[in-house]
Write a structure and sequence with these properties.
By secondary structure, the chain is of the alpha/beta class. It folds into two domains: 217 residues, 3-Layer(aba) Sandwich (Rossmann fold), CATH 3.40.50; 152 residues, Rossmann fold, CATH 3.40.50.2000. Helix content is 44%, strand content 15%. It is built from 16 helices and 14 strands. The strands form three sheets. The protein has a six-stranded parallel sheet with strand order 2-1-3-4-7-8, sandwiched between helices. A six-stranded parallel sheet has the order 11-10-9-12-13-14, sandwiched between helices. α9 packs parallel to α10. It is globular, with a radius of gyration of 22 Å. The two termini are 20 Å apart.
Length: 388
């Protein structure tokens, strides 16, 4: 039995990282002694002070030290340090010679944008720059030059004093992310970087569900490729259902009025989403940014649903063309339309085979059981290195 301390900073608005933290806590506490230490990002003056002191937050570090002395964990796993706790908590754990694991849910250590996006375009200037001056000048964090500079300074300062070298294992979600981090100026070694994907629970599926049409599920935003999606399906008479909310909602509704083959379903709860996913021929995932690890794709695989996705970033790692889905050129509506028409031309047997392969991808990589085994293995290797 391991004694595991999970550390996480909650965002003001709940997001995917918060969900993963909670999922892994529930998963690990079965058979292990697990405690959590939670920080919370605030708004207003309190949030500003948290942000300013994130370079070296003594209060947050002391909070961690107090918990270490009380709980005596064998390993500490940090999910999000930004910005209420700050990287100094890593050094606090180092004082006790406790191995530290840090999940890289995003690209914040490479660029203040965290998404490697500048507006609607991929932005890679920061990856190899010793200090991300270009990102600072463009104000990629919250459209603020000052805030972007301060966040960049926090990451750079801790790189200079060796904080990131004190992390025993960094968890990345895909092979693509692993390559990107290794090729950066951050200085992480191959030994430190371990690929461990996220997971989803297996849904209860109906065996005789009839599949028809295609589905998009996610936030209705530029980076999710909504405009590419709508342009592609406006070139066909093939049915598309869209589920989700976001700033491009009115744009989506306008497209549904012009194109009777496009239907907006609103925001669906998880049960209705799984039903929609297991009823469509394929999930369309036209994102134009690298992504971290889209839960929607995992849910599709678990539902025996193939994915037609941009040949980019996480999607390039997760989807094998003509095995568990299809690739199309990122941002290319014509190519997406071509792949949708190509899919429609496949025989029933071809579609079923690719659907079975999608489910096999889930079984092999994205189940809770696989995830737990990977986590425990990562912890044990970090602990054994500390003891050796």
């Amino acid at each position: 039995m391991l004694k595991i301390l999970l550390v996480h900073t909650h965002y003001q608005i709940r997001g995917g990282e918060d969900a993963v933290f909670e999922q892994e806590y529930k998963l690990l506490k079965e058979g292990n002694d697990v405690e959590t230490l939670i920080y919370k990002n605030h708004s207003g003056i309190k949030g500003l002070l948290q942000f300013l002191f994130s370079v070296w937050n003594l209060t947050a570090t002391q909070k961690l030290i107090f918990r270490i002395k009380k709980f005596r964990p064998s390993v500490i796993h940090i999910h999000n340090w930004h910005f209420a706790s700050g990287p100094a908590i890593i050094r606090g754990a180092k004082k006790f010679n406790i191995p530290v694991v840090l999940t890289l849910h995003n690209y914040r250590l490479l660029c203040p944008s965290a998404s490697l996006m500048n507006g609607e375009k991929i932005f890679l200037d920061s990856v190899h720059q010793p200090f991300p001056w270009t990102a600072v000048k463009k104000g990629l964090y919250r459209n603020s030059v000052i805030q972007t500079f301060w966040l960049a300074l926090v990451v750079w300062f801790h790189k200079k004093i060796g904080t990131w070298k004190n992390v025993d294992r960094f968890i990345v979600l895909t092979r693509f992310a692993q390559t990107l981090f290794l090729d950066s100026s951050l200085g992480i070694t191959a030994k430190q970087l371990i690929v461990k994907p996220n997971f989803v629970l297996a849904p209860i599926l109906e065996n005789k569900r009839i599949r028809s049409g295609f589905l998009f599920a996610g936030r209705l935003t530029e980076e999710k490729g909504i405009k590419v999606l709508l342009e592609a399906f406006s070139k066909t008479n093939i049915q598309l259902k869209i589920a989700g909310e976001g700033p491009l909602l009115e744009f989506v509704k306008e497209a549904t009025h012009k194109n009777p083959n496009i239907q907006y379903m609103g925001k669906l709860d998880n049960h209705l989403l799984i039903n929609a996913m297991s009823s469509c021929e394929a999930l369309i995932f036209p994102s134009v940014w690298y992504e971290g690890m889209p839960v929607t794709i995992l849910e599709a695989f678990a539902s025996k649903t193939p994915v037609i996705a941009s040949n980019l970033g996480a999607m390039k790692s997760m989807i094998e063309d003509n095995y568990n889905g299809l690739h199309f050129e990122p941002g290319n509506a014509e190519d997406l339309a071509h792949k949708v028409i190509l899919w429609a031309s496949f025989s029933k047997e071809q579609k079923q085979k690719i659907g079975q392969n999608a489910h096999q991808s889930y079984i092999q990589q994205y189940t809770p059981e696989k995830n737990k085994a990977l986590l425990i293995d990562i912890y044990n290797k970090a602990i054994n290195n500390k003891l050796s």
